[in-house]
Each structure stands twice: as C-alpha cells, then as structure tokens.
Design goal:
Order of helices and strands: HEHEHEHEEEHEHEHHEEHHEHH
Number of strands: 11
Shape: globular
Distance between the termini: 61 Å
Largest sheet: 6 strands, mixed
C-alpha cells in the first residue's frame, strides 16, 4: 500500500474513533418542571440530581431545567412525546390512568417522614406496582410521596362537620373520595392555582400539604389548618424519563445515572418534601396561621372512610395484576426498613 493511502486509512480510522467517542459526549437531560422557581423540586431536587449525575458521569452528562413547558397534568405527555427528557408527575392529575399508585395515598394516622415513605414506595413499585404498566411510554427513575395532606380554609374550622357544603381544592385520587365522604364539593385545580381561586372566592379552602402555606401562598388566603396525624391523605409522584434519551449516552453512563436515581432519587424527593413542609409551617406561624387537631371522634370517622376506600381500591386493581394486600404489607415493611437506613441529607447540594 502506498504511503498516501496508508495515511488516508489511518485518518479515517482515527476520525471514526473520534466520532464514536464524541457521539456520547456532553449529553443533556432536559427537565420540564413546574411548581414555581422557589419550590423545593427546583431548589433542592434538580440541582442535587444534576450534581450527582455530573459527578457519576465525569461531566459527560448534565441536566438543564426548563420552566413552563406545560401545565402539571401535561407533564407525562411532554416526556412521552420527547418534548422534554424528564419531569415530575403527580399521579392524581391523570384520573383513570393511575390506580395502583394510590397505594401510599391512604391515611394511616401515623407519623412518618416523606423520605422514608418515598424510599419504601420505590421498592414497592419495583416489586409490585410496575406490573400494572401504568407508566407505559416513559421510564420511571424515582417514586415520591409528599407530606401529610391537611385541610386549609379561609374561616377557622374545628370539626369535619363544619366542612359540609364547602368548596375545597382537591387534586384527585384518594383525596377526592375523602372529600365526597366529608360532604365537601371538590374543585379540581392544580396547587399553583389555589391562591388565585381562594382569593377570588372560587373555593373556600384546599386539601394540600403544609409546604403549600409558603410554596403556593396558601397562608395568605386560607390561613386556618385542620390537621390529622399522618395527614388526611398523602400524594403520589414519579420522576419519569423518555426511554429514547438512553440512546444519547453510553451503557456506562446510563448505569451511572441509574445509580444516582431509583431509591436515592426517591429519598431526595421525600427529603425535599419534609424540608418544604417544615418551612411551610414556620412561614404559616410567622404569618398568623392557625393549626387545629381533628378530634378523636372525627379520626374514628375517617378510619372508617379510609377502610372503605382502601377496600374499593384493592378490588379495582385486581384487573391490573396487582396483589393489593401484599403490596400494602410490603410497603409498610419497607417503611420500617427505610427508617433504619442512612439519611440522604448529607448528599444534598445546598441551594
């Protein structure tokens, strides 16, 4: 072979190697987010996950967060259609599609952290719930549970009976069943719309988490809170990715991203909810919010309501191939295990 030909072949080989190496370089996970710039998902979860991913992949993969790509109920579709690579979704926003994910929503009347609940939920999803195939079209990289859902009203309420006939913001799922049982008129609006709806008199209050006192300015329009230990309900979330994103990274980097997702990312999500709830309570107290504990009589009533709702749910997901009693038992076992494990706080990136 003549010298120029050898040089040409060598150049082509080097060029091919360079292209192969560069084809996976500097990949960016575009995250569609909602909740407002000061929400914990945007100040704690995404910055920390980004740092974890960059460290795990030696900066070959990063994260870019984009606001206002669509409303909260549209996030699943935004990711499935490839408009964004990832987002966080609230399952109750998609009535009918998600049933198995109602598992952590039922009131337990016991206190436990959202971090522990989210870790337990991740393992329960992997062991039992994913076979329902409710997240078809996207990959689930974390599951999350928010803090105790309480009831916020414009006027002070001291018992469930006083809620009859009032219009409250609800988000779907188990809270809708609870609202109906309490003779409340549920108004389906996202948490981001609660301030406007309450300030205009469209609703008398809301079923939301304690973090909403600050994050969604609920303390300004519905400053009175009726509380139950563990919450009237909890909320179910997932962080999802478009499966096509994995084509942009090597198998090594995919494994690295998955190593900082799963239980670890689920714990981070729950930790964020715990921190946000505490900040919400502090903000509410500073601004004159009141907190009234539900009576034992009301709690006994709620226990009966919760039992009926759980029985109906267990029956409804049989057709989706989920053993509800086994899944619930597993979830509560995992809660105990999660509480004994190391906290995620030391790994969180400070905002």
């Amino acid at each position: 072979m003549k010298q120029p030909a050898r040089l040409l072949v060598g150049a082509i080989a080097l060029s091919s190697m360079a292209f192969s190496m560069s084809s996976f370089a500097q990949a960016t996970i575009t995250v569609s987010t909602w909740g407002g710039p000061n929400h914990g998902i945007n100040t704690i979860v995404w910055p920390t996950w980004k740092a974890w991913i960059e460290e795990a992949t030696d900066d070959r993969v990063t994260v870019e967060v984009v606001h206002d790509m669509g409303p909260p109920p549209a996030q699943m579709e935004i990711v499935a259609d490839g408009i964004a690579d990832a987002s966080w979704i609230f399952h109750a926003h998609m009535a009918g599609r998600f049933l198995a994910t109602q598992l952590p929503e039922f009131p337990t009347f016991e206190e436990f952290s959202s971090e522990d609940a989210s870790a337990a939920y991740w393992h329960t999803h992997q062991e039992y719930l994913q076979q329902a195939n409710e997240h078809r079209g996207v990959d689930v990289v974390a599951m999350g549970v928010h803090g105790p859902g309480q009831i916020f009203t414009r006027d002070q309420i001291s018992s469930i009976d006083e809620l009859a006939g009032k219009r409250l913001r609800v988000g779907g799922g188990v809270m809708s069943g609870l609202a109906e049982a309490m003779s409340v008129t549920g108004v389906s609006i996202p948490p981001t719309g609660t301030y406007e709806a309450a300030s205009q008199g469209v609703v008398d209050g809301a079923m939301l988490t304690l973090e909403s006192l600050r994050s969604f300015r609920v303390a300004e329009v519905a400053p009175h809170t009726l509380t139950v230990d563990g919450g009237f309900y909890r909320g179910s979330f997932a962080i999802v990715m478009n499966p096509m994103f994995w084509d942009q990274v090597s198998d090594e980097d995919r494994a690295a991203i998955e190593s900082v997702s799963g239980e670890r990312l689920s714990r981070l999500f729950g930790y964020m909810m715990d921190v946000s709830d505490q900040r919400g309570v502090e903000f509410g107290e500073e601004n004159g919010a009141t907190f009234t504990q539900a009576s034992e009589q009301d709690i006994d009533y709620l226990r009966g309501v919760a039992s009926n709702l759980q029985d109906a749910w267990s029956e409804s997901i049989k057709s989706r191939g989920v053993d509800a009693p086994a899944a619930l038992a597993f979830f509560h076992e995992q809660l105990v295990n999660a509480a004994a494990e190391e906290r995620i706080e030391a790994s969180v990136v400070s905002p």
